[in-house]
UniProtKB/TrEMBL annotation:
Residues 3-147 form the AraC effector-binding domain. InterPro entries: AraC_E-bd (IPR010499), GyrI-like (IPR029442), Reg_factor_effector_dom_sf (IPR011256). This is GyrI-like domain-containing protein. It comes from Solihabitans fulvus. Pfam families: GyrI-like (PF06445).
Amino acid sequence: MDHVVTLENAEARPTAVVPARTTWQDFPTQWKGMLDEVWACLNAAGISRGCRNVMLYLDDVPNVEIGVELTQPCPLRGRVVASALPAGRVAVTVHRGSYAELGSAHRAVVEWCAARGHDLAGPRWEVYGPHRDDPAEIETHVYHLLA
């Protein structure tokens, strides 16, 4: 898939997340439980839809924040905390298709930035569109914060 990369000024967006320090090996088995924990918290507050799922990778350790964009205030409990997606100049692309191929979107942004002399700050994140059963209809926005 060809990924069109553009530059944007991102505003901070409030999130409810479970933060964690993990490994790339363990992360694939952890993220779903973290996301389920956030949704259980939102459901307990009467919120069952309208919040897009997000995964924020703060660095390469990885320190991650898994959760949702908040569209309204919500009491948080347990490991679920308030945070925000970073503000600043970003390179962004839209990935259409299977989540298993999201790596190609990240590579496209990194390569596009390198070819144009844009230094990456490190944090990057994914904002997921509405769930679709057909992988061809899945849309995920991939952001990389610029230095």
